[in-house]
Amino acid sequence: MCRRGAAGPALPWAGDMETLNREALSDRPHVLSATQMSEISSVLTGDPREYGIACALWTLAVVRDLIAARYGVRLDRYGIPGLLRLLGLWPANPRHWGAGIDPEVLAQWRRHRYSELRRQAHDAGGTLWFADIIPLPSGVTVVTASTPMGPSVFAAYRDTPVTDAFPDFCRRLADSGSPWLMMTPHPVLSARPVARLRAEGTVRMHIVPRTLDAAVSAAERWRAARRTALRTKHTRADLLRALHAAGAREVTTLCRAAGLARVTADEVLRGAVLHPETLDPWRTLLDELTAVTRRLDEAADERERLVAACWKAGVSSVGLLSRTGGLPRARVERVASALPEVAAERERLLARLALAAERGEQPRDELAVACWSAGVSTSVVVHTGRLGKPRLARAVKTYGEGVARERERLLAALGEAATAVRQSTLVRDRLLRRAHAVLARVAARAEACQRAEERARERRNELIAHCWRAGIRTISLIERRTHLHQSVTYGALRASGIDPPMLRR
């Protein structure tokens, strides 16, 4: 008995399986007694050869002849299935070969791969058998096999692990020739005893693959991996932008922490934060960094303002301002160069002092103090005004005491501003180290997710190619089930060295 599809060769109902799956004709009491049925159950879970039967496996005809010979009861063709069910040696629900396999996948396999296997078995002198393993609630494992046009054979094993039952069935089946087993996926096929059988060449096994289901799962995993990779990539970019906006202005250090080239980082920084909600785990860090950066900028601005104020107040020593304000000399010189009016006023006052000294005008003390107050050094004032240092000191004490106090106040304020800058810098550096570590972890996760996405894509392409080699050669079916674009499917096949025919749409 066989079942035919719309295209391709016939697949069997596992030979006599159609008879075995037939429902019992009635609920009338069985003609065999309970003792006889117990004996039959014990016999059917053993080897037929132990009871003088020539074959190594049971068939419906052998069971019917055995019952007729032993008990003188001749059961009809449909009486055997009911007996097997009563004995707990066959499932109550119909069981057909290929159950659990997608019908479209089974049709593709029948149309392409099965034809090739049938030719190969014929050329090698082997016999195709469609095998199945059926565990029953009664603790019995039934292993069946059938040829497309011949009867079914089966063996029943009570309280026997399937890893022992299936290899025994294969050896008994191999006694009748060279079997080629067609199997649906089952965990026992990866067991060591079965692997030894296959290595010895006792049987040849061909598994109807669930490759399309695996390809569907792989496509789903790839989509999930791609979403995760994109999400982590966007998180890294948003975190980079947020840190830069919060005060991490050393782009080179940020690039190194983010694992990006400078050109790529510059391009990222030109954009805006796309997903602010992804930054919630680091919101406290970003707020602290923003606040301390604001304080640091305010303290730095105040320091520069005080440097300018000191310069205007006559503190003309670049070294003193550099040491007090914690600034490089070049920075102080830039602040001073931004105040040309102070230098012009000094030159004007020195010119007046020089003219007064040349004319011998008396007194010149107030003019000398004015030059000193404008920032002209004591030695220059003494030399230009032709005054002695003690006289200048008395004049400063008389006329410039307020200027000296203002200078001291400004220098003290400058020192305080410098201390505030140093403290804010320390806090900011500590926060920046934390920020760089966070960015490095996010970057590492982004790289790991990218590698995972690449591995998932390779696995997806591998399984799509495996579907093609397993006989599933309808591009539209693969596309429909995996929800992949046609170009992705063709690209996966071509990446594996397969040149599929172009599909016109």
- β-strand percent reads 5-15%
User: Helical element count?
Assistant: 21
* Radius of gyration, CA atoms, in whole angstroms: 47 Å
The parts where pLDDT drops under 50 for at least 5 residues are 1-15, 23-29
Main sheet, how many strands, which sense, barrel?
A: 5 strands, mixed
Strand order of the largest sheet: 5-4-3-6-7
SSE order: EEHHHHHHEEEHEHEHHHHHHHHHHHHH
Number of strands: 7
Shape estimate: rod-shaped
**Distance, first to last CA:** 40 Å
User: For the residues shown, what is the average pLDDT?
Assistant: 83
Percent helix among the residues? 55-70%
Structural category: alpha/beta
Protein model, in words:
This is Winged helix-turn helix. The protein is of the alpha/beta class and 505 residues long. Among the domains are: 2-111 and 128-176, no CATH class; 297-422, no CATH class. The chain is built from 21 helices and seven strands. The protein has helices spanning 17-20, 34-44, 60-71, 79-86, 103-111, 113-124, 162-174, 192-200, 211-246, 251-258, 262-269, 283-312, 318-325, 329-337, 340-359, 365-373, 378-385, 389-399, 401-469, 475-482, 486-495; strands at residues 2-3, 11-12, 127-135, 140-146, 152-158, 179-183, 204-207. The chain has a five-stranded mixed beta sheet. A two-stranded antiparallel ribbon has the order 1-2. It is rod-shaped and about 160 Å long. It starts with a strand and ends in a 10-residue tail after the last helix. The relative contact order is 0.09.
Topology:
Blueprint: E1 2-3, E2 11-12, H1 17-20, H2 34-44, H3 60-71, H4 79-86, H5 103-111, H6 113-124, E3 127-135, E4 140-146, E5 152-158, H7 162-174, E6 179-183, H8 192-200, E7 204-207, H9 211-246, H10 251-258, H11 262-269, H12 283-312, H13 318-325, H14 329-337, H15 340-359, H16 365-373, H17 378-385, H18 389-399, H19 401-469, H20 475-482, H21 486-495
Parallel strand pairs: 3-6, 6-7
Antiparallel strand pairs: 1-2, 3-4, 4-5
Helix pairs in contact: 7-8, 9-12, 9-19, 10-19, 12-19, 13-14, 15-16, 16-17, 16-18, 19-21
